[in-house]
């Protein structure tokens, strides 16, 4: 059985949970930070949330949640925390057998969690992992964070020359296109692909304008929606060790006095929740089941 056939055979999830996949092939774009803020934001809206970490190596989301649980226990505070699961990828020598094991584990976990939760978040590792391609096929919403640079645009399109010219879709864009076809063959809804511009500088530059123009063009050609993500703020990096998000600062006993930067960061998260459609998710009919 080929990889597309394997994924197609497993990509039909029964249940009512919406599956939100955070993924791209590049590291350092803020995938786990984005995932954690969306998870906490959805839970604070009242949604029943579960999360899955597919990164067997770094496992940043798993560590983030462990830090959160430790902080809550140490400080005697109540923090919303998802039902979290880490899937350790297969070490079977056969690539085909390993792919089947990994995708089957993901499929089984999604089906189990879907019956008792409103939203299931899946955090994918960097690189071209088979299980990441499987996760995209399961997605109702795919969130792809990219830093505001030409280096990260290479994740979406091959660029050459000066000024940069588009030479064709990247491997990742082709992967998403293929998994959209897999999803269609399995009878599922189309994947809503959201490209998230992270670490946007506060001052506009020629580079920033050029990146924005190329993204606008790509969004029409490849088929994704563009969202403004998180600005270049120290607070997003500092909170990892405490397991907190900017939404927790006011009531987590962190001792942090909210600054204008903190308030702006909270607004960024809320705008993103609204853009993706996670605000009030528990009060809506699941997109996955509709």
The parts where pLDDT drops under 50 for at least 5 residues are 281-290
| Beta-strand residue fraction | 15-25%
CATH homolog superfamily: P-loop containing nucleotide triphosphate hydrolases
The span between the termini is 30 Å
Number of strands: 9
From the alpha carbons, calculate the radius of gyration and give it in angstroms. Answer: 19 Å
Structural class: alpha/beta
Tally of helical segments: 10
Tell the overall outline.
Answer: globular
How many domains?
A: 1
Q: Order of strands in the sheet with the most strands?
A: 3-2-4-1-5-8-9
Q: Which CATH class is shown?
A: Alpha Beta
| Helix share bin | 40-55%
On the 0 to 100 scale, the average pLDDT is 81
Largest sheet: 7 strands, parallel
Encode the helix/strand succession as letters: HEHEHEHEHEHEEHEHEHH
* Name of the CATH architecture: 3-Layer(aba) Sandwich
CATH topology: Rossmann fold
Characterization of this structure:
The chain is α/β, with parallel strands linked by helices. The protein has a single domain, classed as Rossmann fold. The protein is 43% helix and 16% strand. Strand 2, helix 3 and strand 3 form a beta-alpha-beta unit.
What keyword list fits this structure?
290 residues; alpha/beta; seven-stranded parallel sheet; two-stranded antiparallel ribbon; 10 helices; 43% helix; 16% strand
